[in-house]
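As a warm-up, study this chain.
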Amino acid sequence: MDTAQTQLGSIALFCKAAELGSFTAAAQALGLTPAAVSRGVGRLEVRLGLQLFRRTTRSMQLTDEGRLFFEQCRVALGQIEDAERSITGPHTEARGLLRISVPSTYAHYRLLPRLPQFRRQYPQVELDINVSNRNIDFVEEGYDVAIRLGTPPDSRLVARKLEDAALGVYASPAYLQAFGQPRTLEQLQDPAQHTLLPFVLPSTGRVLPWLFTHQGTELEISPRSSLQISEDPLACVALARCGLGLVQTLQWIAQGHGPELQEVMQDHAGRTRAFYLLYPHNRHLAARVRALVAFLLHGATDP
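Now compare it with the structure written out below.
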């Protein structure tokens, strides 16, 4: 017969799998193998004499009994965590593996330069950083925290704004000497006068619009060009530095390249893109997640 400790462990595995929607995601979150999670849930189903998940080769869904059991067990586990926190205090030491997903732009120019300070403050936290511009399934792939451009439609995630990053249009001095500065949106969009460097969004296959203001009105254009870049927007910046065309990018990226990039179209500037910090909608966040959230939000209180 299972001991009380084993029973509680199986319930915890079941709740994590139900919360994240898969054994694989639960295993990654808990530092186990999917097989270990599956065995734990299987033992629980045998003990209860009920099927908690309806499994297929492509998906896994809670049965009606499983959904009812999950709701009640989630409350019970929350009460246990509250009891532990009441005696260990709210400032439990941050430790363990922290998985972060971040796009290349924010990684290289914002997140990575700050991580040495985070490592000094929290030496017991291990970091697994995925720098990628592809779309990920946040929960399925087991990430603790993600940084993304814009707010996600996923209601399972908390979205907290990190910043509104200012945009600008830039070119190399050599390009401007050869082709001159565009002064109007009409000149900018005329392929006979200028070459634009558009970025193709991985999520839609469409070109990322360029954002402008004109006499107090917000405008956007879809840049047309014989040259398009996909996967990594920093490639657009690299091509602009080489004198191949004009790029709209974040000001703090361009500033990192000093005189290699000069801003144009300042009369039409003023637009921004918002970056958000995302994490699971769970009031019992691990101390390591709370530490990173507070660190990135510049000393904000624990979420």
